[in-house]
Amino acid sequence: MGNDTADRINDPEDGYRLLFERLPESMLVFDTAGRIARFNEAAHLHLGYSRDEFARIGIREIDPFETEDGMRAKLRKIMDEGFAEFDVKQRRKDGDLRDVHVVSQMIPWGGRRAINSIWRDVTPINNSLKTLRSELEQAREQRARAEEIVASIGEAVSVQDTGFRILYQNRMSRQRVGAHEGEYCYAAYERGDRVCDGCPVMMSFGDGKPHTAVRGLRTGRGISYFEITASVLKDPAGRVAAGIEVVRDVTQKKQAEEELCRRIDALGSAPGELIAAVKKVYESAGYMGLSLARPFDREYETHAPDRILPHEILSARELQVLRMIASGKTTKRIAEELSLSGKTISTFRGRILKKMRLTNNAQLAQYAMRTGLID
Predict the structure, then answer these.
(1) DSSP state, 149?
(2) pLDDT tens for each residue of 85-139
(3) Residues sharing a CB contact under 8 Å with residue 122, sequence separation 6 or more, in sequence order
């Protein structure tokens, strides 16, 4: 910095003048009547005017929305209080309207009082705020729609954070178990003091994949069964942020499955009578009457060499189970011999009947004897 510049800065008047001219914000000095007495370079450049053009225009051309009464009110406020801030609309030379924040204060000027104003163009900030408000409003609307959809789902839906604290419950969840938002799920639902064993939400947190479990709970109606399906919710960075849990009442389905198994076991508990009936039908066609025996028997009397018989579409395991059922073995006995569960054997039996278009063990036994699958 040269000595001349340093000397100018040391002089208060010259220092102020240097600051005034080089300030990147628009700075103007008005007399108490509101006429521009002085302006810096930024003032005319920001509005698109040359210095000479800007010197010839009035404040009304720059601020087209200001009324005479409004102008006088602002001047009076500045002079009475010594300081004031305003947000105004200013028009550039090219007609573009800009949002401008004005900060004004009283200053001494050549032995008189004057108004020093700094104009700051806040259009980019305001545009960003408008965009942000619009996006926030859209987000609120989308969230409201999403919440209404989730709230109206006929299954209980809840959201838990990674610490297993309940963040949200839909309408069905609150109806089924009560409102527990803010509580730990294991305390609210199971009255426990730690995460439940086999918790599907915990498993989803572990690998990020959906998990399902079935729980039996004692209720006023007896034992009720619920299918719990859990999956994770991730933040924009891909990190697990929460878990969503959907609980479906499957009590009726479970009871129907158990009843089906009981009936299958009941059929398998009297194989002797079934096999005796089948043998009698096969040998004399008189036990159940000709009208029932003959059509079934006739179906396999003759067939073309390339015809595929029903049992030929079975898997090796299904064919094995068919032979054991037809020979009169119970579900329990078959399960023991094959080292499988009774439920699995019942599943095999159901698939066999469906594939062969039969309806019961008696028909299976008759078919097996007719086609030589058993003696």
Answers:
(1) H
(2) 999 999 999 999 999 999 999 998 878 899 999 999 999 999 998 998 898 888 8
(3) 87, 99, 100, 101
Minimum mean pLDDT range among 2-11, 312-321, 356-365: 2-11
Q: What is the mean pLDDT of residues 237-261?
A: 83
CATH topology for 255-370? Arc Repressor Mutant, subunit A (1.10.10)
Confirm if 169 and 189 have CB atoms less than 8 A apart: no
Q: What is the CATH number of domain 153-249?
A: 3.30.450.20
Mean pLDDT of all residues in 274-287: 54
Helix ranges restricted to H, 217-270: 251-268
User: What one-letter code names the amino acid at 277?
Assistant: A
For CA atoms 174, 179, 185, 187, give the dihedral sign.
Answer: negative
Residue 236 has pLDDT above 50, yes or no: yes
Side by side, the strands of the sheet bearing 112-121 are 36-39, 26-30, 112-121, 97-109, 83-91
Amino acid in the structure at residue 156: A
DSSP state of 182: T
Q: Residue 98 in contact with residue 92, Cβ under 8 Å?
A: yes
The answer to whether the CB of 93 falls within 8 A of the CB of 49 is yes
Joined together, the tokens standing for residue 364 give 């299976």
Task: Tell which phi-psi region holds residue 95, choosing left (phi > 0), alpha (psi between -120 and 50) or beta.
Answer: left
If you search the block for the tokens 């000479």, which residue do you land on? 52
Dihedral pair phi/psi, residue 276, rounded to 5°: -60, -40
pLDDT digits (tens, 9 = 90+) for 256-266: 777 776 665 56
- On the question of pLDDT at 10 being above 90, the answer is no
What is the rounded radius of gyration, in angstroms, for the C-alpha atoms of the chain? 44
Q: What is the CATH number of domain 3-121?
A: 3.30.450.20
Token readout for 54 is 């800007």
